[in-house]
Amino acid sequence: MDALSSVLESVKLKAVVYPKFSFTSSWGIEIEQDFRSQFWLLLQGTCYLRVPGEEAIPLNVGDFIFIPHGSTHQISSKSDTICVPASQFGKAYHSGKPLFQGKEEETLLMGGHFEFTPTVQHPFIKTLPKVIHINNTTKELNLWLQQAASLMNEEISDEKIGSKLILERLVDILFVLIIRAYLEQANIKDGFLMALKDHRISNSLQSIHESPDKNWTLHQLAATAGMSRSLYCREFKRLVGETPLSYLTHWRILKAKEILSESKENIIEIATKVGYQSEAAFNRLFKSKVGETPASYRRKRQL
Question: What share of the chain is helix, strand, coil (3-state, %, to 5)?
Answer without folding.
Answer: 50, 15, 35
